[in-house]
Design goal:
Blueprint (H helix, E strand, L loop, with lengths): L15 E5 L2 E6 L7 E5 L29 E4 L2 E4 L7 H5 L11 E4 L2
Antiparallel strand pairs: 1-2, 2-3, 3-6, 4-5
Length: about 110
C-alpha cells in the first residue's frame, strides 16, 4: 500500500507514527530524514513486557516481575488490555531485546 499525504509544516517539529490498530507500521523521528517502515512483525514472545522495573507505570506482577497486564495465550503472550493498550506500549521499538523479530528499515 502506498500513502501520499501533504502534511502541515509544523509536523517537522514532531515525531510521526503510523499505526494499524495498535501496531506500529512506520515512524519518523524529528531528527531523522526518512521514515522507517516495518519489515518484520512481532512474534508475541512477550520479552518486551517481562521483567519490568519496580516503578513500571502500569504495575508489575510481584510473582513474575512482568507487566501485570501480560497474559499467556497458548504459545504466545498478549496484552490483557487489548485495544485499551497504552499508546506508549504501541510505539515502543524494543531494539534492546535479544531475538526481537520486529524490524524496521529506512524507506526508499
Amino acid at each position: 500500500m502506498k500513502i501520499e499525504l501533504e502534511l502541515p509544516e509544523w509536523v517537522t517539529e514532531r515525531h510521526i507514527r503510523i499505526l494499524a490498530g495498535v501496531e506500529l507500521v512506520a515512524y519518523k523521528l524529528v531528527h531523522e530524514d526518512k521514515f522507517k517502515i516495518k519489515t518484520s512483525r512481532c512474534n508475541f514472545c512477550g520479552k518486551c513486557c517481562m521483567n519490568v522495573r519496580v516503578d513500571h507505570m502500569f504495575g508489575r506482577d510481584p510473582k513474575t516481575n512482568d507487566c501485570r497486564f501480560l497474559k499467556k495465550n497458548g504459545d504466545i503472550y498478549e496484552c490483557g488490555l487489548g485495544l485499551g493498550r497504552p499508546f506508549s506500549c504501541c510505539i515502543t521499538i524494543p531494539k534492546h531485546i535479544r531475538g526481537c523479530t520486529e524490524k524496521f528499515e529506512e524507506a526508499r
